[in-house]
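Take one protein record:
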Amino acid sequence: MHSLPVFLRLQGRAVILTGVGEAADAKRRLLERAGARVVDEGGHAALAIVADGDEATVQRLRARGILVNATDRPELCDFTLPAIVDREPVLVAIGTGGASAGLAKALRQRIEAMLPARLGLAGDGTSRCAHRHPPPLARRSGAAKGD
């Protein structure tokens, strides 16, 4: 395993974003969807995305102890951003460690086609899907149907 997959809660947290253009715009939209507060290079943050892959910027940020993603430069990355299938509350991440964005995209498209836009995981737990797939605590306690 080349990386540890994690899901970060960024709501209200600062994330540095540098660069301009289409890649930077896409990363900004992604960060904002996750609830991050996007700041410039001078801001205080634990994570940064260098959308133009500039090595000097990566080095400056790393010197400050910040974990960095450099767009299209996997050799400079402390973390990579996966292809994402968002079927709230289900989130599927497909990562290749930066080796093949095309493969990750193809897999994402297949998974999107397999999963309906609404999975029926109602917050009140009354949906058919929620009944079949109870929360972890209920499964562990044997409270799930048929246990």
User: Anything to note?
Assistant: The longest strand covers residues 14-18. Residues 84-139 form one domain.
